[in-house]
Structure formats: structure tokens, C-alpha cells
Amino acid sequence: MSSQVSRAARRVTHELHGIVVSAGLMQKTVKVRVAGQKWNKIVNKFYGDPKHYLVHDPNSSLRTGDVVAIAPGWPTSRHKRHVVKQIIAPFGEPIESRPAVPSLDEIIAERETKKAAKDERKAQRKQSEEEQRLALKKATATERESKRTAWEQLKAKSGQ
Fold it and tell me: What residue spans carry the Basic and acidic residues bias annotation (predicted)?
């Protein structure tokens, strides 16, 4: 089953390498600093210009100081647009004692199952709303009919 999400995720060919500067403060999220440089025209010199990215860490397996590879992905929250690809160099606790970092295929499969479950819930909700709407329409029709018969009976009484 190849969905639009999986095709888009597999199309990504570039990755960024950075250092985890904040881990454990947010659930399933780490802050990664990626090195960069900026040219200053006045001094004619490059200066360090790091960027910080909020990265989705599904199993909370990263620790502060780890060197990681991250890849751009789909929006997980307002500011999270990247996902952990692998741990290049762990800092402190060894990788074996941490939860495993899921592969790209596992992440895509999990996302697709969540999306399928959400679509199913949405269809069920839509169907129940349609049933409620039809029941309300039927109830108002019977109510109108009963009012009409009562009105006709009242008219018939007053006409005699």
C-alpha cells in the first residue's frame, strides 16, 4: 500500500547533521542545533550561524549532546517539521540501553495506520450525523402532520 505520504517521505534525499541541545523537556521532541555559516561583506569573513530545529523523537531515545541525523518530514506540530533519522554519535548513555530509533518505513507505517483509523472515525461520525439528521427530519414531518390534522379538526368544528 503506497500512499501519498509514503511516496513523499521516500522522495526526501537530503539530511542534516546536528547536536541535540535540549532533550527531555518536551514529550517526543528534541531541539537540534545544525551548524551553518554566514558571510559578512564588511569584514570579508564567514561567521558561525547555527539554526535550531524542533525534531520529532517518537520513542524519546535522544539525550542532550547526541550527534544525530535528521530529515525533513511532514508537520507533526506547529513548529516540528523534522524527524530523527539515526543517532550518529551517542553522548553519555550507550545506544543499546536506550529505546530504538524507528526507521523511516516504520514511521510511515505508523502514520498511515493512524490516518486510516482517523478516516474510519470520521466516516462513522458522518454516518451517525446523517442518521440523526434523517431522524430529525422524520420527526418534524410527523409533527407537521399532527399539527395539520389538529388544524383541520379545529376548522371542521368551527365550520359546523
Answer: 112-150
